[in-house]
Design goal:
The complex is a heterodimer of chains A (399) and B (180).
Chain A lengths: L1 E5 L9 H15 L3 E6 L11 E3 L4 E5 L2 E5 L3 H14 L3 E5 L6 H8 E2 L2 E5 L7 H5 L1 H8 L4 E4 L2 H11 L4 E2 L6 H5 L21 E7 L9 H14 L2 E7 L4 H5 L10 E5 L3 H10 L2 E4 L9 H8 L4 E4 L2 H6 L7 E3 L4 H12 L2 H14 L5 H17 L5 E2 L6 H4 L6
Helix pairs in contact in A: 2-3, 8-13
Chain B lengths: L1 H56 L4 H16 L5 H15 L3 H9 L3 H33 L2 H5 L28
Helix pairs in contact in B: 1-2, 1-5, 2-3, 4-5
Classes of the chains: A alpha/beta (399), B mainly alpha (180).
């Protein structure tokens, strides 16, 4: 099958959607399909062979943060050329409502189009204003995929129609087989009997983005350290480290270690090493891939009770939940879990069994099922001549 | 005078282009419904065929075989207006037969059973998908067709008003053990 995938966000900047597309493309390539990914990228960024650059993305404020998007005349022309040269059986657009390549492709293409909705933003004012335009473009999508039941609900409420739920994929074995690193493990985990009750707590995410919830964890930390003086907090992610610990009493700051950005390998080893992974995110999550990664690596998970997280954690069966933004409840749960190896072993076991459904072998097969379903009754993808508008309708277009 | 004439003409042309664009949109939606319906038919037929094969293969007990055969046969032979009921009955029969994980394991162990179970699991997973895509397209077309401009100018032409395909397509839990 010839598959075209459209990534709306810049390939230069790592992000959940980009990683999802990369893994998906590589999964299809391994199965012997032909895959081409159209993504915004700087000219000097080294790209994998299957990625086609749609030009430089422009940073614009969108949806509460600065997003790097592609739009305009040149991008539209590049999309059309890509469609024309690719001759795809199916195209898969990610995040079709973001004002970027996804929407442009929707405009320019006809034929079997599959779209994945990643975010579950509340309806923005811009979306209401652009509703008529958006609807005409979204009507062309033959199959919609939502990454969680929660994302599907928002989609149905805001845009009408329906979607199938296929979760994001994770390479479970990559995480399950990683080697723990002794310096990230607690004394207990290494089989040493520490002098004081301890344990290592892991956190991965942007330090300076409050949505990721590090401030909540910082508020809970004094209480955790009071009960377990030997505990350490390991933080992996970009951001200002001094500012992050500013709220902590000076004596406790040494219990927090910053690892900066970590590679994929180190991320897996990190998750294999910690005694407890905490996800205190306060909102804006539609899936929670990091929880799946933590469970794959066998880390017991303690997460805020966002809808998306509760769903990934099987309503608290595969990992523990605490009330969102409640530092006291977070501290109490963390202290209890760190002091209860049996409960952690139970969570580890249930988590490992639960994540199998998020493995690429399952998720990729489901997405391929969607492709096969929509291509069964339809012709291949082509540039939509009607979309060229006036010229085509007046018979002036070149063919 | 000439200016008024030019303006009137310009407005008329603009309205004409807008209506032609809307008709194009509607045409595309109808084509999408046709494609989605063809895909749904293909998946339903595939499911009934696999079910019938399993029913006649002898790996199931005689009672289950009869129930499944009856339902699969009914689904394949149903007239258009009874199709939704017949397909729902096949779904219920499949759920009844494959309710227990032990039954699924027993089929899997039979010669050729691994292959048959995989095909059936795939079929019962794809039917709800295809149906959702079909009904999504139907919903979009209906929303547009109910609009004034479409009704007044009869932009839908003679195309029949699209109908959703309603059926029970909940797959047997033991066969698709995964998150929704």
């Amino acid at each position: 099958m010839r598959i075209g995938i459209v990534c709306p966000y810049s390939w230069d900047v790592p992000g959940g959607v980009q990683f999802h597309i990369r893994d998906l493309a590589e999964y299809f390539l391994r199965l012997g399909h032909e895959v081409s990914v159209l993504a915004p990228a700087d000219d000097d960024t080294p790209l994998p062979p299957y990625v086609v650059s749609a030009g430089r993305a422009v940073p614009v404020p969108y949806n509460g943060s600065v997003a790097r998007l592609n739009f305009g005349f040149l991008s539209a022309a590049r999309v059309r050329r890509w469609l024309h040269e690719g001759a795809f059986d199916v195209i898969h657009i990610h995040e079709p409502t973001s004002p970027s390549l996804g929407l442009l492709t929707c405009w320019a293409a006809q034929g079997p189009i599959v779209a994945t909705f990643h975010t579950s933003n509340p309806r923005s004012r811009a979306m209401i204003a652009a509703y008529a335009i958006l609807q005409a473009a979204l009507e062309k999508i033959s199959a919609r995929i939502a990454v969680s039941e929660y994302a599907r609900r928002t989609l149905v409420e805001h845009l009408g129609g329906d979607a199938v739920v296929i979760p994001n994929g994770v390479d479970v074995d990559f995480f399950a087989k990683a080697e723990p690193r002794p310096e990230w493990q607690s004394d207990e985990a290494r089989g040493l009997t520490g002098k004081e009750a301890g344990g290592t707590i892991g956190f991965i995410g942007r330090i300076d983005e409050p949505r990721k919830g590090l401030p909540v964890l910082m508020r809970a930390l004094p209480e955790i350290l009071a009960a377990r003086p030997g505990a350490r907090l390991l933080v992996a992610g970009r951001g200002d480290e001094k500012e992050a610990v500013a709220s902590l009493p000076a004596g406790l700051r040494s219990r927090v270690e910053f690892l900066g950005m970590v590679s994929d390998e180190d991320k897996a080893r990190f998750l294999r090493s910690v005694d407890l992974y905490v996800a205190p995110n306060t909102g804006g999550e539609s899936f929670g891939i990091i929880l799946v990664e933590a469970m794959s690596a066998g880390a017991p998970v303690l997460a805020s009770d966002l809808d998306a997280f509760a769903q990934v954690l099987d309503q608290g069966e595969a990992g523990e939940l605490f009330p969102n933004e409640d530092a006291g409840a977070l501290a109490a749960a963390a202290v209890r879990l760190l002091g209860d190896p049996k409960r952690r072993a139970g969570l580890r076991e249930r988590g490992s069994a639960h994540v199998r459904r998020f493995d690429w072998s399952t998720v990729g097969a489901d997405i391929l099922s969607v492709y096969e379903t929509v291509t069964a009754g339809a012709a291949a993808v082509a540039a939509d001549e009607r979309a060229t508008g006036l010229r085509a309708r007046l018979g002036l277009a070149r063919d | 005078m000439t200016a008024t004439l030019i303006w009137t003409l310009a407005v008329l042309v603009a309205i004409g282009l807008y209506l032609s664009w809307t008709a194009g949109r509607l045409d595309r939606l109808h084509a999408r419904i046709d494609a989605a319906r063809a895909a749904l038919d293909a998946q339903l037929l595939r499911r009934a065929s696999v079910a019938q094969e399993l029913a006649t293969s002898g790996v199931l007990d005689p009672a289950a075989s009869i129930v499944l055969y009856e339902a699969a046969h009914g689904a394949r032979q149903a007239e258009e207006e009874h199709r939704e009921v017949a397909e729902s009955e096949l779904t219920q029969a499949l759920r009844a037969v494959f309710e227990e994980p032990a039954q699924v394991d027993a089929v899997r162990e039979a010669p050729g059973g691994e292959e048959a179970t995989r095909e059936l699991a795939e079929a019962v997973r794809r039917v709800p998908m295809a149906r959702r895509f079909h009904n999504d397209a139907v919903g979009a077309a209906r929303r547009l067709r109910e609009h004034r401009k479409v009704r007044w100018f009869r932009l839908a032409g003679h195309a029949p008003f699209p109908l959703a395909f309603e059926m029970d397509d909940e797959p047997p839990a033991a066969l698709v053990d995964r998150a929704a």
